[in-house]
């Protein structure tokens, strides 16, 4: 520029425009942060790396994180976007941090059995059914835990003396395993219980008269019976057999009972008394004593002496005779003692029961929640020709516990002369009158709602069970339907379980299954739009259409008439253009549905 002989240079300065975004300097490659989840938690607090960016303006860009460092991240992979913005508003391509929180905590097991589940097999059995509380598991991740099992299942039969390892393995979504392992061991039952005599209380006494002109008698012994916990009949043996010859006096017979396991009962001791009748009109009798024999190591026959000689006169009552044996060296054996019983010859008559014809029967109800009852027996009375009161004994005492069913009690009467009455047998009947006890009977009504649009529903419930005071098996019958059956809507169904014990006492669990339907409105379908041409002078025209259809879940097809629509079919439409028609359907539950269509009236064309 030239002016007044001078030349000027003109410079124009403009502001620079910054279009260049910031650049991350520690995001290549994009960082990954890997941490382990906290125990008992589904994630962890994560400290993110500090991301740095530079800018051509030399000013420090503003750094922002979509998720802040120190926040809680759940198990799995998450991303954090880091943005950088300079003062000119230029944004860097985001730096993406990948955060991986690893699940390293195995599932937590609940109710794992102890190291060994030990049960005893029933007596005589080689296996047993074993049950245990099955373990479960939860996981810190909140994900579903899968389980696998080896070795056997709850309720399986396991053999005696064979250890079986049961293993439950619980695995979470990260494949972390937890193991619950234990041993099932069935031991054989040992029978250490001896047999029990059932007719040896009190121990029996057999009293007989010596045969005429004899020093004894052949005696028939009572049949002794025993029972055993194994249910097998014990072996009964007698130290002296029934039908053997017993000499005058008192003798004992040991009766033993042995079960299959070798257990021996305490012997039942029968006392046998062989008596001699006194001579008529005398206070005693001449008694022939048994011949007692002894042997000696010298082979010589010992000298036998009686304190009272055979053939002597013995008075009424009991006497003893000592028999000694002495060898040539003067050695004396321990004396053999003979008991001689002489009874008055006039009393051979046994006592007579006065209240045992017919034999009495005692019937009582079992105590509730018990398999029997304490029974008070009737007092049995007997008389004797001697005018003395006979001794009364019971095989089972009054006030003892009798189990459910029929039992017998033998009552004996003996007079002073040893005469025994024919036993009086009392029959004791303990009745089971207590019905079974029901467990888990559902409430009075089980009410469920059918799925929307359905007219029935599947219904399940916990089935009831029952136990009985008698300990016997309870039978069950059921009517009305089963668990998992399909039941119709609005039809009450009575379900009845009847539990019956061995005495035919019933217990009933009854309830109603009722399925309610959801309120489903009917479905109405309108015809399509209707078009008509106006009469002359554009005054409108009549319009008709098909009656709409209507279907309902509960009612089925609902038949409609012209009154369903407003205005009605066949009516006059005076408006040129569109007029709406609304149709309504109502079901038996007063639920309604509507649909709408249009009637178009076009103008009259005079051409």
From TrEMBL:
<feature type="domain" description="HYR">
    <location>
        <begin position="102"/>
        <end position="188"/>
    </location>
</feature>
<feature type="signal peptide">
    <location>
        <begin position="1"/>
        <end position="17"/>
    </location>
</feature>
<keyword id="KW-0732">Signal</keyword>
<feature type="domain" description="HYR">
    <location>
        <begin position="190"/>
        <end position="276"/>
    </location>
</feature>
<protein>
    <recommendedName>
        <fullName>HYR domain-containing protein</fullName>
    </recommendedName>
</protein>
<feature type="domain" description="HYR">
    <location>
        <begin position="17"/>
        <end position="101"/>
    </location>
</feature>
<feature type="domain" description="HYR">
    <location>
        <begin position="431"/>
        <end position="517"/>
    </location>
</feature>
<keyword id="KW-0677">Repeat</keyword>
<dbReference type="InterPro" id="IPR003410">
    <property type="entry name" value="HYR_dom"/>
</dbReference>
<feature type="domain" description="HYR">
    <location>
        <begin position="346"/>
        <end position="430"/>
    </location>
</feature>
<feature type="domain" description="HYR">
    <location>
        <begin position="518"/>
        <end position="603"/>
    </location>
</feature>
<dbReference type="Pfam" id="PF02494">
    <property type="entry name" value="HYR"/>
</dbReference>
């Amino acid at each position: 520029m030239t002016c007044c002989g001078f030349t000027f240079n003109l410079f124009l300065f403009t502001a620079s425009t910054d279009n260049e975004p910031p650049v991350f300097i520690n995001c290549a490659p994009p960082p990954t942060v890997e941490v382990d989840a906290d125990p008992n938690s589904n994630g962890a607090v994560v400290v993110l790396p500090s991301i740095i960016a530079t800018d051509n303006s030399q000013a420090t860009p503003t750094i922002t994180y979509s998720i802040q460092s120190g926040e809680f991240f759940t198990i799995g992979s998450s991303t954090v976007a880091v943005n950088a913005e300079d003062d000119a508003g230029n944004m860097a391509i985001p730096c993406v941090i990948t955060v991986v929180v690893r699940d390293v905590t195995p599932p937590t097991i609940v109710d794992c059995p102890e190291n060994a589940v030990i049960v005893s097999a029933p007596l005589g059995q080689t296996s047993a059914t074993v049950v245990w509380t099955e373990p479960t598991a939860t996981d810190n991740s909140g994900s579903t835990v899968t389980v696998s099992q080896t070795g056997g299942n709850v309720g399986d039969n396991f053999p005696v003396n064979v250890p079986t390892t049961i293993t439950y393995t619980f695995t979470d979504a990260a494949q972390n395993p937890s193991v619950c392992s234990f041993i099932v061991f069935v031991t054989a039952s040992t029978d250490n219980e001896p047999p029990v005599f059932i007719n040896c209380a009190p121990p029996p006494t057999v009293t007989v008269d010596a045969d005429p002109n004899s020093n004894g008698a052949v005696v028939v012994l009572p049949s002794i019976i025993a029972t055993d916990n194994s249910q097998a009949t014990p072996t009964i043996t007698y130290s002296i057999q029934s039908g053997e010859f017993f000499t005058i006096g008192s003798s004992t017979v040991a009766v033993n009972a042995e079960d299959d396991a070798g257990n021996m009962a305490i012997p039942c001791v029968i006392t046998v008394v062989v008596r001699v009748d006194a001579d008529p009109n005398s206070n005693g009798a001449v008694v022939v004593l048994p011949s007692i024999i002894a042997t000696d190591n010298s082979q010589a026959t010992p000298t036998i002496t009686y304190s009272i000689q055979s053939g002597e006169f013995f008075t009424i009552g009991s006497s003893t005779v000592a028999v000694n044996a002495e060898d040539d060296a003067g050695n004396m054996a321990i004396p053999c003692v003979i008991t001689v019983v002489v009874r008055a010859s006039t009393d051979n008559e046994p006592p007579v029961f006065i209240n045992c014809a017919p034999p009495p029967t005692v019937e009582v109800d079992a105590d509730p929640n018990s398999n029997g009852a304490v029974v008070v027996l009737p007092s049995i009375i007997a008389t004797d020709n001697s005018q003395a009161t006979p001794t009364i004994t019971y095989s089972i005492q009054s006030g003892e516990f009798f189990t459910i069913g029929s039992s017998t009690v033998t009552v004996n009467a003996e007079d002073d002369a040893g005469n025994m009455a024919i036993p009086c047998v009392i029959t004791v009947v303990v009745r089971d009158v207590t019905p079974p006890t029901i467990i888990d009977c559902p409430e009075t009504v089980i009410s469920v709602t059918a799925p929307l649009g359905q007219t029935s529903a599947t219904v399940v419930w916990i089935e009831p069970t029952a136990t009985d005071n008698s300990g016997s098996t309870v039978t069950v019958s059921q009517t009305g339907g089963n668990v998992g059956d399909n039941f119709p809507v609005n039809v009450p169904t009575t379900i009845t379980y009847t539990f019956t014990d061995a005495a035919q006492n019933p217990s009933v669990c009854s309830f109603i299954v009722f399925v309610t339907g959801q309120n489903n409105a009917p479905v109405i379908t309108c015809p399509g739009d209707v078009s008509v041409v106006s009469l002359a002078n554009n005054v409108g025209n009549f319009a008709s259409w098909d009656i709409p259809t209507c279907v309902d879940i509960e009612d089925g097809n609902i038949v409609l008439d012209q009154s369903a629509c407003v205005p009605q079919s066949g009516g006059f439409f005076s408006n040129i253009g569109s007029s709406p028609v609304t149709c309504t359907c109502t079901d038996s539950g007063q639920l309604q549905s509507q649909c709408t269509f249009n009637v178009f009236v076009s103008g009259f064309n005079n051409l």
